[in-house]
Amino acid sequence: MVAKEDDSPEEIMARALTIAQATLAKREERLKQLEQQTERQKITIEQQDVTIKEQAPKVSYYNETLQSVNTLTTTQIAKELGLDAPKLNQRLKQAGVIFRQSGMWMLRQPYSSWKLTATRTQTFTRSDGSTGTSMYTVWNERGRRFIHALNDCEYNARKAVRMIGQKGGAQ
Q1: Rounded to an integer, what distance in angstroms lies between the CA atom of residue 164 and that of residue 9?
Q2: Tell me, what DSSP letter sits at residue 63?
Q3: Closest to 140 (Cα-Cα) out of 119, 167, 162
Q4: Where are the strands (E) in the chain, listed by range?
Q5: Is the torsion defined by CA of 149, 154, 157, 163 positive or negative?
Q6: What's the CA gap between 148 and 163, in Å, rounded?
Q7: Contacts with 170 (C-beta within 8 Å, 6 or more apart), sequence order
Q8: Which listed residue, 29, 83, 98, 162, has the most CB atoms within 10 A of its CB?
Q9: Residue 154: strand pairing partners
């Protein structure tokens, strides 16, 4: 604050008081803004806590099941559906989901990009005593759910995808 030569001490004090009051008013306003911001953040955190609690079972299922390295053979899934593996493979082939190449069942597009399967390698001994290997397709939990949805939708892939989407599945 700049004082003029002819300012009386009362005028200087009055101006200083005015400046101090304005500074305090600004500070009070800033405190109110910070309190409002804090209150909004508390509400956001409470909402996020509710969301986290709601999502926890889904996250757990994803972590423990969908990301599991465990896989199932077509025979295992077929048994769950009351079928045998050749019958299930035939239905999946007719639905346009799989095809056979070089003795191995493989997924068609777009299913091959959905991370439904993996492969296993089997070692065997040939009749001449030499060792050979063969690969075969196995299904992860996501693939198992897809096959069950296909079965429930009479092997109509579009319906199965919609059904999985409605139940919260991820493709």
Answers
A1: 82
A2: I
A3: 119
A4: 98-101, 104-107, 117-125, 131-139
A5: negative
A6: 11
A7: 62, 66, 142
A8: 98
A9: none
Per-residue pLDDT of 85-96, as tens digits, reads: 999 999 999 999
The answer to whether the Cα torsion of 94, 99, 102, 104 is positive or negative is negative
d(CA 112, CA 98): 9
H or E element at residue 9: helix 9-61
Neighbour tally for 40: CB within 10 Å: 10
Rounded Cα distance, 83 and 114, in Å: 24
- The CA distance from 88 to 94, in Å, is 10
Query: Is cis: bond before 110, omega within 30 of 0?
Result: yes
Rg (CA), the chain: 34
- Which tokens sit at 6? 């002819």
Give 144's contacts (C-beta < 8 A, 6+ positions apart): 72, 77, 80
Structural contact between residues 118 and 143, judged by C-beta atoms closer than 8 angstroms: no
Judge contact between 119 and 136, C-beta under 8 A: yes
> In 3-state terms, what secondary structure has residue 129?
coil
Count CB-CB contacts under 10 A for residue 81: 15
Q: CA-CA distance, 120 to 70, in Å (whole number)?
A: 11
Q: pTM surpassing 0.85?
A: no
H-type alpha helices, 62-116: 74-80, 85-94
